[in-house]
Amino acid sequence: MAEVERAILARAPEHIIDPTLTRVGELLDVLGSPHRNVPVVHVAGTNGKTSTTRMIEGLLREFGLRTGRFTSPHLHSVRERIAFDGQPIDEQRFLDTYDDIAPYLELVDSRHEVSLSFFEVLTAMAFVAFADAPVDVAVVEVGLGGTWDATNVADAQVAVVTPVALDHERYLGHTIESIAGEKAGILKRGSYGVLAQQTVDAAEVLLRRSVEVDVIVAREGLEFGVLSRGLAVGGQLLTLRGLAGEYDEVFLPLHGAHQAHNAVVALAAVEAFLGGSHIERGRLDVDLVRAGFAGVTSPGRLEVVRRSPTVLLDAAHNPAGALATASAIDEDFDFTRLVGVVAVMADKDVRGILAPFEPLLAEVVVTEVVSPRAMPVDQLAAIAVELFGADRVEVSPRLDDALDTAIGLAEQEGQMGGAGVLVTGSVLTVAGARTLLGGAR
């Protein structure tokens, strides 16, 4: 397993893209076009993609379908990206799948100046594994963008676009319109579009694309939406209006209004995929919908991994994600003192990530993860001091020491206080903290 991981990781990383589908398309063609043998639900967007993908997959599984799920990035093991019926692909199947495609990688590489990337290889492996299983449906998350993302070799039956915001501007552009244009690439003739609530600029781009390719779209806030939500122990209780009717008393074991909106987008996508054969008395079986949502997990998204003090992990890595996380904490948790642990990538809008947390955090401990993309801790500290003031910023270059410092600061509140620690800033930050705190499984 380690040998295969090294071989895949030696290729160009997923955050560096060469905008073409030619290489991955050629690879899949010589492998028998497995991406055309399985119905696909395709999920793009800036924030909420992974949670929405997991919700769609969980609901479809509850309705008796055998599911494949492809998500990115992973927290601990690359095998997490390819899942069957909610569980990561096992080591032997992962190795067998790589062995199946390995002879063709060199062939395709030899035809192009740029070799297949890490993400292109994993995308091909996912489609091969799903076709071999076979699965009844593959729920596939876009890696980056949409139009030129390797996953866009598939023509989805249902194409979902979660909220669009500024991120990955080096590749997708510096405006909401340009980024939305890239995401809109997954809307293709023959698909059914499900659009989360968007800014006006993003909505105009997505709707223009739907007209150009003659795609029927359902829009959150018009054809479907969240009717009500209330706090519940361990999550929230929702009433959702889907495409086919209303669903009440839906327990979602995730925190934040953004997750409620992800849930209704997932519900609409499942209704669109299953169609009339599963709809009775104006809606899907509400008990199956409730069971599907009740079993949803989203590791690293406002995940509680420790109590006394409470430690929350959230992989917010852009301003829109940070704002959603901060709003959820403010609404769903009753902390009297919250300490942050933050490490970010240097290519991100760091001020935009930190700013939403300033009103919430009593102190922030800045640190650094092991990555060539990581922002040096001293540079991050300087930005944090600008926003928080020097008296609220601690510097701890190692993540393990940063966690100890933050927990110590939170414990100063005493056992009777509502103290907590929030670890955020990037997926790598959350993955490292999850391992150190015993949350990795």
Give me the secondary-structure topology.
Elements: H1 2-9, H2 22-30, E1 40-44, H3 49-62, E2 67-70, E3 82-84, E4 87-88, H4 91-110, H5 118-132, E5 137-141, E6 158-161, H6 169-172, H7 176-183, E7 192-195, H8 200-212, E8 216-219, E9 225-232, E10 235-241, E11 246-252, H9 257-274, H10 286-294, E12 303-306, E13 310-313, H11 319-332, E14 337-342, H12 350-354, E15 363-366, H13 377-388, E16 393-395, H14 399-411, E17 419-424, H15 427-436
Parallel strand pairs: 1-5, 1-6, 2-5, 6-7, 7-8, 13-17, 14-15, 14-17, 15-16
Antiparallel strand pairs: 2-3, 3-4, 9-10, 10-11, 12-13
Helix pairs in contact: 2-4, 2-5, 3-9, 3-10, 4-5, 7-8
Description:
This protein folds into 2 domains: 2-223, UDP-N-acetylmuramoyl-L-alanine:D-glutamate ligase, CATH 3.40.1190.10; 303-436, Alpha-Beta Complex (Protein-Tyrosine Phosphatase, Chain A). By secondary structure, the protein is of the alpha/beta class. It is built from 15 helices and 17 strands. The relative contact order is 0.11. It has helices spanning 2-9, 22-30, 49-62, 91-110, 118-132, 169-172, 176-183, 200-212, 257-274, 286-294, 319-332, 350-354, 377-388, 399-411, 427-436, and strands at residues 40-44, 67-70, 82-84, 87-88, 137-141, 158-161, 192-195, 216-219, 225-232, 235-241, 246-252, 303-306, 310-313, 337-342, 363-366, 393-395, 419-424. It starts with a helix and ends in a 5-residue tail after the last helix.
